[in-house]
């Protein structure tokens, strides 16, 4: 079983003909409200790849919370450990210009109230998990506690350090898999973090593929290039979720990473995060073609 600890949030996207000035109202805009939050996205990706997954996050008492539960019920994500409290579910407002340039404002809401003590109340979940996935859209102390509880319970830990945030290096080093993108990796290098020889660093590099480093050995895996890129928003979460599901199913490191490369590549061909995440059979089919061209 995989336990995902972190975030759910609603994404409110407004596409505008231009950004209004101070005090100005403009028409001609379009609105879309969708599911977001890195941890929820990753949990859905895990479920679509056939993984058994439980999500530990926080929701408010609003319509966004109701929508989240409907999503998880539909996708097969176990959500009995989600903290429900009075207040607002995390939401992000994204204003997108015709050029694709965007401006984003995040209201964390009750997600900021997910505490280390809340996690302590679910020690049994950490003890039961084979793999725990943690991102950094929750308070730092909560993310660190999730890693510590997972290791105390004997689980493998995958840390997706997004968004990049200062953590105690000794806690980062506890993660078995450290999975940043290029900018996140650069952030931790600047902070002086050096991965121990026992930690696997899986760095996603977009069109440059994925590099896997263990100790002094690094291997770079080729990307799967798509001719038509529609939306890259959910690619990172698709990669993490697919990678986690493959590892939990017993795949070797290289095989799990290749499967995740294929899934994330398929995701960029479809608009919006949840609709873009491919199912297991789609990944199986595309993976065979990818391996034929890269091996």
Strand and helix layout:
Layout: E1 2-5, E2 9-15, E3 30-36, H1 38-48, E4 53-56, E5 58-59, H2 63-75, E6 83-84, E7 91-96, E8 102-107, H3 116-120, H4 123-128, E9 131-135, H5 140-152, E10 156-160, H6 169-172, E11 177-178, H7 182-190, E12 200-204, E13 210-214, E14 217-221, H8 235-248, H9 253-267, H10 273-276, H11 280-294
Parallel strand pairs: 1-4, 1-9, 2-7, 5-6, 9-10, 10-11, 11-12
Antiparallel strand pairs: 2-3, 7-8, 12-13, 13-14
How would you describe the overall organization of this protein?
The active site is at 237 (proton acceptor). Substrate binds at residues 37-41, 137, 237. Belongs to the carbohydrate kinase PfkB family. Ribokinase subfamily. It is an enzyme of class 2 (transferase). Its main location: cytoplasm. It is a single chain. With 295 residues, the protein is an alpha/beta fold. The chain has one domain: 3-Layer(aba) Sandwich (UDP-N-acetylmuramoyl-L-alanine:D-glutamate ligase), CATH 3.40.1190. 37% of the residues lie in helices and 22% in strands. It has 11 helices and 14 strands. Strands 4-1-9-10-11-12-13-14 form an 8-stranded mixed sheet, with helices on both faces. The chain has a 4-stranded mixed sheet with strand order 3-2-7-8. Helix 6 (169-172) links the parallel strand 10 (156-160) and strand 11. Helix 1 crosses helix 8, helix 8 runs antiparallel to helix 9 and helix 9 crosses helix 11 (280-294). The longest helix has 15 residues, at 253-267. The relative contact order is 0.14.
List keywords for this structure.
295 residues; alpha/beta; UDP-N-acetylmuramoyl-L-alanine:D-glutamate ligase; 8-stranded mixed sheet; 22% strand; Ribokinase; cytoplasm; PfkB_dom; potassium
